[in-house]
Amino acid sequence: MAVHDDCKLKFLDLKAKRKFRFIVFKIDENIQQVMVERVGGHDETYNNFLAAIPANECRYAVYDFDFTTDENCQKSKIFFIAWSPDSSRIRSKMLYASSRDRFKRELDGIQVELQATDPSEMSIDIIKARAI
C-alpha cells in the first residue's frame, strides 16, 4: 500500500508546528494509496473530529489531544485511531487492517494507538483515560 507524500507532510505540520488538531486519512482503493481526506484546524474540537469520520466507512486518523495532568501540567499526546465500523464493507475492513501497521510506521511520533469499531470506543472519556 502506497502512502501519498501529503500524509507525511501534514502529519509533520500537526506534530512539529501544531498547525492542525486532527487529520483523517482514507485509502483510495482504485490506486491503492493512503490519502489525506480532511484536516482540522487547531481550534477545532473533538466533536468536530468525530463529525469528520464517516459512520459506515473505515478510516485512519490522528488527533492531537491537549490535557492537564493531576500535577497541573499542560501536556499533549498524538493518538492514532483506526476506525473500522461493523457496518463497513468486509473488503474495506480487510484492506485497512492489513495496511495499518505499515501506514503507522510512516507517521513517526504516534504516542497512543486506538482501534475502534463503535463510536463509544473513541469517546472523549476513552481518549482522556488513555492519555493519562
From TrEMBL:
Keywords: Actin-binding. The keyword Nucleotide-binding does not apply. One of its GO terms (biological process) is actin filament depolymerization. It holds the Pfam family Cofilin_ADF. GO terms for molecular function: actin binding. The keyword Ribosomal protein does not apply. Residues 1-132 form the ADF-H domain. One of its GO terms (cellular component) is actin cytoskeleton. InterPro entries: ADF-H, ADF-H/Gelsolin-like_dom_sf, ADF/Cofilin. It comes from the Eukaryota. Belongs to the actin-binding proteins ADF family. This is Actin-depolymerizing factor-like isoform X3. The gene is LOC111473285.
